[in-house]
Amino acid sequence: xxxxxxxxxxxxxxxxxxxxxxxxxxxxxxxxxxxxxxxxxxxxxxxxxxxxxxxxxxxxxxxxxxxxxxxxxxxxxxxxxxxxxxxxxxxxxxxxxxxxxxxxxxxxxxxxxxxxxxxxxxxxxxxxxxxxxxxxxxxxxxxxxxxxxxxxxxxxxxxxxxxxxxxxxxxxxxxxxxxxxxxxxxxxxxxxxxxxxxxxxxxxxxxxxxxxxxxxxxxxxxxxxxxxxxxxxxxxxxxxxxxxxxxxxxxxxxxxxxxxxxxxxxxxxxxxxxxxxxxxxxxxxxxxxxxxxxxxxxxxxxxxxxxxxxxxxxxxxxxxxxxxxxxxxxxxxxxxxxxxxxxxxxxxxxxxxxxxxxxxxxxxxxxxxxxxxxxxxxxxxxxxxxxxxxxxxxxxxxxxxxxxxxxxxxxxxxxxxxxxxxxxxxxxxxxxx
Amino acid sequence: xxxxxxxxxxxxxxxxxxxxxxxxxxxxxxxxxxxxxxxxxxxxxxxxxxxxxxxxxxxxxxxxxxxxxxxxxxxxxxxxxxxxxxxxxxxxxxxxxxxxxxxxxxxxxxxxxxxxxxxxxxxxxxxxxxxxxxxxxxxxxxxxxxxxxxxxxxxxxxxxxxxxxxxxxxx
Lengths: 433, 171
Ligand SMILES: Cc1cc2nc3c(=O)[nH]c(=O)nc-3n(C[C@H](O)[C@H](O)[C@H](O)COP(=O)(O)O)c2cc1C
Ligand code: SF4
What we know:
The complex is a heterodimer of chains A (433) and B (171).
Chain A: H1 18-23, H2 28-36, H3 39-49, H4 61-66, E1 77-82, H5 91-98, H6 100-114, E2 118-123, H7 128-143, E3 159-164, H8 174-181, E4 205-209, H9 210-222, H10 224-228, E5 231-232, E6 235-236, E7 238-245, E8 251-256, E9 259-260, H11 261-266, E10 280-284, E11 292-294, H12 295-299, E12 308-309, H13 311-315, H14 318-321, E13 329-334, H15 339-353, H16 359-376, H17 382-395, H18 403-428
Parallel strand pairs in A: 1-2, 1-4, 2-3, 7-13
Antiparallel strand pairs in A: 5-6, 7-8, 9-12, 10-11, 10-13
Chain B: H1 8-16, H2 28-38, H3 45-55, H4 59-66, E1 80-85, H5 88-92, H6 95-106, E2 119-124, E3 136-138, E4 141-143, H7 148-161
Parallel strand pairs in B: 1-2
Antiparallel strand pairs in B: 1-3, 3-4
Helix pairs in contact in B: 2-3, 3-4
């Protein structure tokens, strides 16, 4: 069995309550940190653990905390990104719903390390029922002296609140999230300045993903060495993978980074193989934004090495033959899947979710959706396929935020690896599936 | 809606205290959720103006926000809004057939409301429950692994009980 850091105890009935969480050793990391460790020591543990951001970008967490502007006299904020909207990703909900105190404990540790006195959990508006679970847990934490004034007599005080979004994928981008939290449209800001210097209300701010924050209590309890001894290369620790699509056992799995993809897809401990005994056709390994890979390239790299579930291995081969770990949204497609149609749903998604600030993204996502619709419905031409590639190239790298890239990569990669299928749509003048 | 109900006011006041002094505009999204619920599921100009006056901001600051977020309806909706996810993972697991079932049964297309005002059908993008696709949302509730049979059961139930999906999400 793989090591469980985030999902340990997840099946224990009543885990969402303070009593059960506490009985299982919960809040011991807060006690340890607030009594025995300085904020810098907490940051040090997280830095040395090798923990990387689990929201998609994989940026080293401790290093990000280190950027917080300490010279500023403004208050500092620690914000949890619970926007979870990347198609194929449903891991944060799992934590928030079943183990809200783990998230709260991580928030306290992060806020303490950063010197924040107020923190927010920004959660997508569709998940109001999870917001209520977390608010209830927060109220319990206040009642038990874990939040509020002078936590556990340490002299450190923290207020923690939940804030709902209202349906906008772009608010997962951290500067759009901060805009939204200020009661505005979710338009990403131009960086720099980065939130660590100019964040919420213009104050130094760190935004982290739910899963990143949930790993912190374990690191503080067990020490950075225990965490960094798990995993492979620069992919330390465990990662939640949201597995969905045409597999026998969809769900949220905690893996040790470095697990072979083959094992993840086919072993009964995880996905349990392809449904109906079908053949694996393709995988989008890290949420809809990352390049799609055909079966042979997701299982093995071009050099014949087994592909592993890690930041390095999944991106090996660059965009020619590799992909990315991203948010860990693992979408599996069997041989009955029309790649063009699947891509069309993604293109529609990005068009719908573009905030509209940059012309290449606003217009390009609409064009790509339209052209894909044309091809899928049998009215496309061979030129359309090249036009798609061309548009994707003009979006990539030319926008304020990475949503543009996220819209371009799925299109470029689907055509790179499945061009024949696009051509077949054109030749047959209909979808072959 | 002319003002928040007496049940909602304490919640509104609690929310207003979550932000530092002078940053009460942050309460806009939470307050719009409550206002929409108390205005039959949509945000009329009058409702938005009321929220603007409460937060001491310009009405335009509310309109521009309300029009940005897909959960806010700027037109009247039916009593029960059924939101069907259409993004890749749900599509892989039959979301299109599920949507077709709802359009057939209700006799309306996505984006429309039944003539009796009971149901509105909406397509939405990824609801972050892809492991249990296909997924639909009604009010604050998620329904997952929705087969046609399950959809039929739900629809019958909602029809019988005159389901209302716009309730204060904080309650
Ligand atoms: C379009 C877009 C959507 C994003 N959505 C999310 C999201 O839903 N959740 C999340 O944690 N990060 C999301 N991110 C990444 C955040 O910008 C940010 O990198 C992350 O919250 C940082 O936390 P981490 O370092 O702990 O991963 C998104 C980024 C982009 C560009
Ligand atoms: S890339 Fe798209 S989503 Fe990002 S800021 Fe530009 S228009 Fe908005």
